[in-house]
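agent> Task received from the user: take the single chain below, predict its 3D structure, and emit structure tokens. No templates, no multimer pairing.
agent> Plan: (1) validate residues, (2) run structure prediction, (3) serialize to tokens, (4) report one or two observations.
agent> Step 1 OK, no nonstandard residues flagged.
tool_call: predict_structure(input=
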Amino acid sequence: MVMPAVRCLGWLLTKTWRLLFNGLHVDLQSLHHVRRVLEASEGDVSVVFAPTHKSHLDYLIISYLCFAYGIPLPRIAAGNNLDLPLVGSFLRANGSFFIRRSFRNDNLYKEVLEQYVHELLHDGNPVEVFIEGGRSRHGRVCKPRLGFMAMFLNYVKGASRAAADDGSKADETSKKTVLVVPISLDYDKVYEVDGYANQLLGKPKEKESLAVLFRSVWDLFFLRLGHSYVRFGEPVPLTATSSLQGSSELVAERMQTSGTITSTSIVSALLMWKRAYLTEEMLEARTVWLVEELEKRGATVAHVENDEIAAHALSILKVDTKANSVVAPQLQYPVRALELGFYRNHLLHIFLPEMAIVGALDAALRQRSKVDEGSFAQHKLDIWTVQQQARKIWHFLRHICRHEAIDIEARLTQFLEDSAECEVDEASGTVTVDVNCWNTSKLTSFVLSLSWSFMDSLWLTTQGLWSLLSAAENDDSEHTERDVVRRVQVLAKELFLRQQLSHAEALCSESIKQSLEFLVESGVVRFERSYDGKSRVVRLCSNSADPVRVLEDLTREVNARRKPHAFLWREDELPRNLTREEAMELMEGAQSSRSIYAKWMAPPVPPPTA
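)
tool_result: status=success, residues=610
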């Protein structure tokens, strides 16, 4: 690390943040707590910073904060795609070291890198790694990659073995511990988000180069990104007895839950709630309501005043406001829906248990036994059936968004006791729901709106499994994960164009991949390595004598959890489920299609004003 280069970077970043942000807010309380934990730790302690990764600005902000608050600058693990001429040398001088994006089969490279990381830890250098592997394109914390976490665990375990081999009694001061500090970085606006939306629809990512870098830097000078927020989570200690999978999941969960709910997150969630035109006055009233609900659940909400949140977020998001202050979010365009979904996803973890519970109750209400009492329609549900539904939805949602493990049945019991719409009869094991109150509940409607698009993605993925069954029946070639995702996206695109799919963001490739992982956990499909070892192959699990019946039941079950069609003159209806033949016909174009992205998916660019 070269100090003149560090000072130069500090000066440049100070000027840059003043241009880009209205404010860079650091939660000093969480920072001081981390410092106290480090000071109280006994033995040989190494520090690893694990920030969320939504933007290329992330590592610059962490380095700047360390520089500003007198914390030793970390050694940063960066992808070798950033090792550009001149830029790479400058980043190395400021503590970065570059690694390959993938080195699965190169054991020598992996061993050399691991020894280098161990030397950094042994010398007392803080290390900064992005355990998500890459930038999150969907706004949620991604599934943690285990490579670096395994290196950190091997370091502490290797030290313990060395002490045991020496025959010395390891006292408290000789124990080695790695403290992983989760950090959440949240932005009112992420400048790369439009590119993320295009990539989630299959548009190839633009390769990093000096030309791309200079163009991005030039564009930054004309952007206003609002506010940026940094919060530190509770450190996770890695010792010789720690579990690799458990520790990695815990770090990811704390990265997610330590975040700040920004104004753009709140407004995006509200715009995607009713999916209709609304006035600025209506939006402001709903903003006040949602902020209250978030604070009830212990969320950290951005400091913007309630009466300014809507106006501030609309200007940052560049949402059109038409005559009579009517807000038009343009959610009919998939790119726009994915952009707003990126920000909305920041608050999913706050409502995640309720999404499972409310989703289970709502699905069960469509398969209820009906009891009429006076003029109020009431429906009696079996609690055990609701528990089963809630458990399945909860397991799926934990693939969508990182969240600590909870007893969902206990949370369901508490929800039923607190809900004004539900009355529990413990003797009969049933709950009676006042449907009129349920259908008019603001909270119920909002929570359901958070999960509808993910249920659409899961349903589309189950429909995509028909192609795997056909391949197995015809002894066809293997289908990689990428092939399956592309087929599902082609199906989603066709249904969306036919107005048979309500949520444009259901086309998101990452949601489809997470749905596949849930189906693997459920024992429906399995992943295998391809013959060349470069990709994952998806296969149906052959544990049923009648796979056609299994897939029919699965698609029907998931379809029952989707958003129903609402009617003024009669009861709501579920969307129609597809038959095998219909799904296969719609996926016919997948073989020749490399990407579903098309120009119509993005809203038209308004002409420049004179």
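agent> Step 4: summary for the user.
The longest strand covers residues 176-187.
agent> Done.
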